[in-house]
Amino acid sequence: MALKFSTAALLPVCMAVMAIATPAQAQDYPAKPITIIVPFTAGGPTDKVARDFAEAFRKQLGNVSVVIDNSAGAGSSIGVAKAARAAPDGYTLLLTHIGMSTIPSLYRKLSFNVQDDFEYLGIINDVPMTLIARPTLEANNYSELATWMASQKNGVNLGNAGLGSASHLCGLMFQDATNTQMVTIPYGGTAPAIADLLGGQIDLLCDQTTNTTAQIAGKKVKAYAVTTPERLEGEVYKDVPTLAESGLKDFNVTIWHGLYAPKGTPQAVLTKVNDALKAALQDPEFIQRQKDLGAVVASDNRVNPAEHKAFVAAEIDKWGTVIKAAGQYAD
């Protein structure tokens, strides 16, 4: 005789099984390698941060293998979309930079919502920016640079590493702060942009210390200012003023990196990941590696999920205004 079960009768059983399975999953986590999606190419500044973080992170999770998946393209939106579609089990995470707060304004059509489709896990670091110029530019300080920019009837050639890149965002903010319209030249990455700056094909570039410190130290470029409220430490930057003290009041641009999981990842797993993140940020080797890159490891409340999400929401509003004013976005 065939047995019949109603959906209503099975529902409590299914819920009970799920309730038992979720804690067991969390208790065993991690039981296999973890993949961190980085939505930028290998060898770039975000990839470097991710690989350094992965080394410190895995040690906090029993030396589990942590694999970096570089899924680059479309200003990071390809990799972010891939992370949003991943199974919410804690085995696929996303590590990305400030682009998490700018792609909603830069791209009109996205398959994901950065605020609704992710679990926020914490900010990892902050990376200052530097305003640099080709070595042959005659201005020797920011005051002279401002005068030179005002004299350029054909415009100033301002390079960047592509739509949504850190240098693109800093360039937008710089143009807004100086009320100037520059000739923006996007490249397919930081390396070709710096190569053309060194060769004199472009005039200015505003990029991360992770990309510019070696060039400044070798006197291969002219450094006019840093974008942080306070001057940077270290021999390389001891004579480099801030843009704020150079006359651009309240100018402050740093490129931060954060960690995310797909929406629906069990809370117990999220707690384990956040605990491991906080411990990794106190790893002396990781701290030193970041210092060597000119980056500062996060130590404030943004290492907590709620504060991380609130911070990104504020950044979305901030950059949305700048990007809308510039009218620079993709279809």
Automatic annotation (TrEMBL):
Q: Does the keyword tRNA processing apply?
A: no
Mind giving the lineage of the organism this protein is from? Bacteria, Pseudomonadati, Pseudomonadota, Betaproteobacteria, Burkholderiales
Q: Which InterPro entries match?
A: BUG, Bug_dom1
Name the family: Belongs to the UPF0065 (bug) family.
Task: Name the chain's protein.
Answer: Tripartite tricarboxylate transporter substrate binding protein BugD
Establish whether keyword Magnesium is in the entry: no
Q: Which UniProt keywords apply?
A: Signal
Signal sequence interval, chain numbering? 1-26
Q: Which domain of life is it from?
A: Bacteria
